[in-house]
Structure to design on (906 residues):
C-alpha cells in the first residue's frame, strides 16, 4: 500500500510503520482470521481496514479520534500476521502506532485514572496481589457496579492464592545440562504462583539450573500495547540491564504475552542506540515450551510418568504463543510426551479468547463475546483437562468455563508436565 | 496510456484529493443520502463517518473514490431501499463483497453509494435437490463446509475462497484450480435473485432467455445479486497430487499440452514461476525447489482409483519427457500444504515489491509454450519484475508486474502490461479469464473487442441500467461520441 508516512514521521518508529503499511497488498486474506471482523463484519474492524486507518492518520488525512474506536477494538492477537502471505508485520505496526498516538488522545478523567492504575498495578506483583484480594471481597457487589468497574472484578478467580516468591537460584537436579535465566512475570505471580513453582521444578528435573536475575521487572508489554511508550522504554531498559544474555543458554518466560513482549525489544528500540543490545537479548528469549520442546526433540527430556487413566487434554493456543511467537507444535509435543495423554484440537482454535492484555477492561463486551465462544468451543471437545501457556487466557477460559457450568480444570502446560513428573496425573 | 479515470492501481493521488467536498465525520453535516438511509434502515446498517467510508473504496488491487455513504444490508428489502434512495438523489451504486477482486471492480470511480453484502450470510442446504441457497455475502468456502455433512461439495474454488463472497464470485464468474475439469462459478448457478437499477427485485432461472447468465460475470454493472441457488455435487473418492519442476517456463507449458493431448483430464493444473516459488518459500518454508524456473502442481481425481493413478502416470510421463523432475505428494497433508502454497502465491508476491499490475489472460493451450516464453522475454527486456503463475490447464495465465512506485516508472509498468495483453490478443486469447475487466483492463478493451460487439454490449447495458447508475466506469470503455 503506497504511503508517504516516512516524510511525516522520519524516526525509527516511522520507518517501521511505513514499512508495514507498504507491505500490505490489501488482498483481504487476513479478514477471516480476525476476531473483531468475525464479530462485527465490517471492514474498519478488520486488519486490512485498520492498516488503512493507520495510514490515513499517520499521513494527516484522517483525525485520530475518528479512527481510534476501530483501532481500540484490535486485540493485538496477531492472528492476521499468521494469515498474511505478504509478511505484513502488523504487530509491530499497531504497537508503534499506539505508542505514537497515545499522547494525543483525549480521554476522560475516569478513563485516564483507570489506565494509569492498571499500568501501576499490573507490573507490581505485591500491589496486584493486594488489589486482587480487595477485589475478591468486592466481587459480590459486582452486579451493582457500572461495566467499566465490573469487568475487572468478573475476571478475578474465586480464590486468590498467597504470593510465593521464587528463589533467586534453583540448582539442577542430577547432571547439569544447562543454565537459563527466568523472567518471573508480574500479574501471574499473584494470580497463579504455581506456574512459576512448577516451571522451576520441571527445569531442575531436567538438569537445568535457573537464575532469576535481580533488577528484572515487568516485560513492558502491557504498557507498550496500551500506548504508554515512555513507561515501556523504562521497563525494557531495566530488563536489558538485569539480564546479560552471554551468561545464559536462554532467557525463559512461561507467559506467552511476556515472552512475545521480550522478543519485541528490538522493534521497540529500532533506530535507538541500544537496538543492538536488544537484538542480542531477544535472540536468547524462548518460551518455556520451546526450550523444553527442543530437549524433547533431541531425546533429552526426562520421561514423564504415565497418567493413572487415559486423559484427554484440550490444548488452547495462546495468541501470543501461536501467532506472535509461532510456537504451536512444542507445547503439543510436550503434552503428548506424557504417556496416557491425548491432545485435542479446539474448533476455531485460532480465534482469540478475548483476554488480550487489558482488553477485558477496555472492551468488556467484545471480550465477553469472545470468551463465551472460546469456552463453548473448548468444552465441545469434552476434555478432561484444558491446557494453555498464558495467564491471561487461563483466567479468561477458566471464568467462562465456570460460567458455563464446567468444572474441568484449566492448567498451564508446564503444570501438567510437573504433575506427570510427580506421578499425580 | 491512461487507465480508469478515478481508479488507479494503488492510491497514487489519493491523499491530496481526500477531503474535498466530502462530508466531515464529526461536527460536519451528513450527506443527505446517509441521513435518509439512516432514517430508513437504522444506524447499524449505515456507515457515514470518514473512517468508515475510507474503508469501502478499495479492492485487492485498486483504490478508488471515497463513497458518500455505505450500506450493510441484511436482507433483499434493505438493498431495495438503498437502491431507491440512491436513485432518488442520482448517485452511482457500487456493490461490494469481500473486496478481494483483482480488477478494481469494487473500487468506485466516483463518490456514491457502496452496498457491502458481508452481513447477508444466510445459507441453507437442500441435500435432496443437491442445492445450496446462499445470500450474496456468504463466504465461498462456507458453502462446501455446510454441504460436507450431507456428503456434497461446491466445486468452484477461487484461491481467495476463504475470503471472497458468493455475490462477488457470481459477479466475476470466478474460476479456480478445479475449473479445468469441473467448470467455473457460472456452471453451478441454477438461479439467482437480483435487484435492478430501479430497485425492483427479479428471480431468474436458466430457462427462457439466460438472463442469469448475463448477470453472471457482469461485475455489478447490470444488477445487484442478492442470493443464488447453487448446484452441489458429490466429491471424488480419490485424489492424487504431483509436483513437477522445470529448468525453463516453456518446458512446463509443453508438459501440460502433451499431458492433455495424451488424454489426461486432471482436476487441477497449476503453474508458478521461480519468483512465485521463492515468495511462497519465504512465507511457508515447505522446501520447494527454489532453483527451478517453473513449478507445476497437478491433481487427478475420480471414483476409480485405477484411472486416477493412470492419469497421474500420464502427466508424470509428459513432465519427464519435457525435461521436468517429478515428485508425488506422499500424503494428504503434503498435498494440502502444496495447495495452500498455490493459494498464497498472489499475496505472497507482495514480499518482492509492494505493488503490482495483475493480468488475467487466457490463450489457447496449443500456443501456451510460445506465450509464456514471449511474456518471459518481455519481462526480462523491460528491467521490471515480471512473474507468471496461473491455471495453466485452461490457458489462464496471471502475468504480474511487481513494482515500487517510488523507484519505478508507472508508465513503464503500464507499457509492459499493454505488451503482455497484446501477446494474448495476438495469439487468439482474451483479456480476462476470471478476475474481470473492472477498471484495470478497460484500456485494453478496444483492442480486444471489435467496435460492433462493443456497441451491442452497450445496448445491453442501457437496457438493464438506463441511467448508468450501476458501477459506472467498469467493464465497458466509454462510448464513442
Ligand atoms: C489472493 C487472491 C487470489 C485470487 N484467486 C482467484 C482465483 O483463483 N480465481 C478467481 O476467479 N478469482 C480470484 N481472485 C479474485 C477475487 O477473489 C474474485 O474475483 C472474487 O470473486 C471476488 O469476490 P469478492 O466477494 O471479494 O468481490 P468484490 O471484490 O467485493 O467485488 C467484485 C466485483 O463484484 C461486484 N459485486 C460484488 N458483490 C456483488 C453483488 N452481490 N452483486 C453484484 N455485484 C457484486 C463488485 O462491484 C465488483 O465489481 C483472487 C483474489 C485474491 C486477492
Ligand atoms: S493478508 Fe496481509 S497483505 Fe493481505 S490485506 Fe491482510 S495484512 Fe494486507
Ligand atoms: S491483531 Fe487480531 S484483532 Fe487486531 S487486526 Fe489482527 S487479527 Fe484482528
Amino acid at each position: 500500500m503506497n504511503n508517504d508516512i516516512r516524510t511525516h514521521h522520519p524516526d525509527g518508529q516511522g520507518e517501521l510503520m511505513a514499512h508495514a503499511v507498504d507491505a500490505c497488498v490489501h488482498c483481504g486474506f487476513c479478514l477471516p482470521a480476525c476476531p473483531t471482523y468475525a464479530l462485527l463484519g465490517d471492514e474498519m474492524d478488520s486488519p486490512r481496514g485498520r492498516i488503512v486507518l493507520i495510514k490515513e492518520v499517520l499521513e494527516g488525512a484522517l483525525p485520530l479520534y475518528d479512527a481510534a474506536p476501530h483501532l481500540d477494538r484490535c486485540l493485538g492477537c496477531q492472528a492476521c500476521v499468521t494469515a498474511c502471505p505478504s509478511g505484513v508485520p502488523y504487530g509491530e505496526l499497531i504497537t508503534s502506532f499506539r505508542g505514537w498516538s497515545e499522547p494525543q488522545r483525549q480521554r476522560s478523567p475516569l478513563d485516564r485514572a483507570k489506565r494509569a492504575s492498571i499500568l501501576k498495578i499490573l507490573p507490581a506483583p505485591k500491589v496486584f496481589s493486594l488489589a486482587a484480594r480487595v477485589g475478591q471481597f468486592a466481587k459480590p457487589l459486582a452486579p451493582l457496579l457500572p461495566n467499566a468497574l465490573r469487568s475487572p472484578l468478573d475476571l478475578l478467580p474465586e480464590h486468590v492464592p498467597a504470593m510465593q516468591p521464587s528463589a533467586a537460584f534453583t540448582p539442577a537436579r542430577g547432571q547439569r545440562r544447562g543454565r537459563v535465566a527466568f523472567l518471573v512475570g508480574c500479574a501471574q505471580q499473584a494470580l497463579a504462583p504455581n506456574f512459576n513453582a512448577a516451571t522451576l521444578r520441571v527445569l531442575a528435573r531436567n538438569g537445568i539450573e535457573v537464575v532469576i536475575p535481580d533488577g528484572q521487572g515487568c516485560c513492558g508489554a502491557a504498557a507498550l500495547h496500551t500506548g504508554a511508550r515512555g513507561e515501556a522504554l523504562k521497563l525494557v531498559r531495566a530488563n536489558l540491564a538485569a539480564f546479560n544474555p552471554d551468561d545464559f543458554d536462554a532467557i525463559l518466560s512461561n507467559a506467552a504475552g511476556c515472552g512475545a513482549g521480550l522478543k519485541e525489544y528490538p522493534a521497540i528500540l529500532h533506530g535507538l542506540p541500544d537496538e543492538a543490545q536488544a537484538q542480542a537479548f531477544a535472540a536468547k528469549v524462548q518460551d518455556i515450551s520451546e526450550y523444553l520442546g527442543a530437549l524433547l526433540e533431541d531425546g533429552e527430556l526426562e520421561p514423564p510418568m504415565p497418567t493413572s487413566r487415559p486423559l484427554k487434554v484440550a490444548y488452547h493456543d495462546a495468541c501470543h504463543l501461536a501467532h506472535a511467537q509461532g510456537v504451536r507444535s512444542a507445547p503439543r509435543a510436550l503434552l503428548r510426551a506424557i504417556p496416557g495423554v491425548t491432545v485435542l484440537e479446539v474448533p476455531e482454535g485460532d480465534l482469540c479468547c478475548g483476554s488480550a492484555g487489558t482488553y477485558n477492561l477496555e472492551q468488556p463486551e467484545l471480550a465477553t463475546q469472545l470468551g463465551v465462544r472460546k469456552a463453548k468451543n473448548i468444552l465441545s471437545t469434552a476434555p478432561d483437562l484444558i491446557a494453555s501457556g498464558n495467564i491471561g487466557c487461563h483466567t479468561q477460559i477458566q471464568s467462562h468455563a465456570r460460567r458455563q457450568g464446567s468444572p474441568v480444570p484449566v492448567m498451564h502446560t508446564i503444570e501438567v508436565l510437573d504433575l506427570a513428573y510427580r506421578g499425580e496425573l | 496510456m491512461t487507465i480508469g479515470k478515478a481508479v488507479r492501481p494503488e492510491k497514487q493521488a489519493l491523499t491530496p484529493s481526500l477531503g474535498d467536498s466530502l462530508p466531515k465525520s464529526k461536527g460536519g453535516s451528513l450527506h443527505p443520502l446517509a441521513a435518509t438511509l439512516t432514517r430508513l434502515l437504522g444506524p447499524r446498517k449505515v456507515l457515514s463517518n470518514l473512517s468508515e467510508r475510507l474503508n469501502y473504496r478499495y479492492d485487492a488491487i485498486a483504490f478508488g473514490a471515497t463513497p458518500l455513504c455505505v450500506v450493510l444490508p441484511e436482507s433483499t428489502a434493505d438493498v431495495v431501499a438503498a437502491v431507491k434512495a440512491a436513485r432518488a438523489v442520482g448517485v452511482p451504486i457500487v456493490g461490494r463483497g469481500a473486496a478481494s477482486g483483482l480488477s478494481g471492480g469494487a473500487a468506485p470511480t466516483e463518490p456514491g453509494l457502496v452496498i457491502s453484502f458481508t452481513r447477508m450470510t444466510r445459507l441453507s442446504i437442500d441435500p435432496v435437490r443437491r442445492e445450496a441457497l446462499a445470500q450474496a455475502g456468504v463466504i465461498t468456502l462456507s458453502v462446501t463446509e455446510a454441504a460436507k455433512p450431507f456428503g456434497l461439495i461446491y466445486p468452484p474454488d477461487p484461491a481467495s475462497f476463504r475470503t471472497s463472497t458468493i455475490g462477488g464470485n457470481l459477479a466475476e464468474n470466478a474460476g479456480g484450480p478445479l475449473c479445468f475439469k469441473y467448470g467455473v462459478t457460472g456452471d453451478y448457478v441454477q438461479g439467482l435473485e437480483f435487484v435492478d437499477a430501479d430497485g425492483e427485485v427479479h428471480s431468474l432461472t436458466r430457462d427462457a432467455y439466460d438472463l442469469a447468465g448475463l448477470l453472471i460475470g457482469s461485475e455489478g454493472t447490470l444488477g445487484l445479486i442478492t442470493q443464488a441457488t447453487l448446484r452441489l455435487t458429490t466429491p471424488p473418492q480419490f485424489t492424487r497430487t504431483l509436483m513437477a519442476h522445470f529448468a525453463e517456463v516453456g518446458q512446463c507449458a509443453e508438459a501440460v499440452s502433451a499431458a492433455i493431448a495424451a488424454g489426461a483430464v486432471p482436476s487441477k493444473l497449476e503453474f508458478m514461476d521461480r519468483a512465485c516459488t521463492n515468495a511462497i518459500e519465504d512465507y511457508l518454508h515447505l522446501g520447494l525447489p527454489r532453483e527451478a524456473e517453473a513449478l507445476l502442481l497437478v491433481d487427478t481425481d475420480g471414483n476409480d482409483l485405477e484411472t486416477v493413478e493412470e492419469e497421474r502416470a500420464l502427466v508424470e510421463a509428459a513432465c519427464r519427457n519435457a525435461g521436468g523432475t517429478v515428485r508425488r505428494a506422499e500424503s494428504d497433508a503434503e498435498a494440502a500444504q502444496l495447495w495452500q502454497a498455490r493459494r498464497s502465491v498472489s499475496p505472497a508476491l507482495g514480499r518482492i515489491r509492494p505493488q503490482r499490475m495483475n493480468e488475467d489472460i487466457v490463450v489457447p493451450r496449443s500456443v501456451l509454450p510460445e506465450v509464456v516464453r514471449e511474456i518471459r522475454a518481455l519481462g526480462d527486456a523491460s528491467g521490471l519484475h515480471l512473474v507468471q503463475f496461473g491455471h495453466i490447464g485452461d490457458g489462464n495465465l496471471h502475468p504480474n508486474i511487481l513494482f515500487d512506485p517510488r523507484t519505478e516508472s508507472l508508465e513503464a509498468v503500464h507499457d509492459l502490461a499493454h505488451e503482455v495483453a497484446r501477446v494474448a490478443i495476438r495469439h487468439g486469447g482474451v483479456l480476462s479469464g476470471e478476475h474481470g475487466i473492472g477498471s484495470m483492463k478497460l484500456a485494453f478493451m478496444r483492442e480486444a473487442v471489435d467496435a460492433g460487439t462493443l456497441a451491442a454490449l452497450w445496448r445491453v447495458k442501457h437496457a438493464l441500467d438506463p441511467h448508468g447508475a450501476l458501477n459506472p466506469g467498469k467493464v465497458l470503455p466509454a462510448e464513442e461520441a
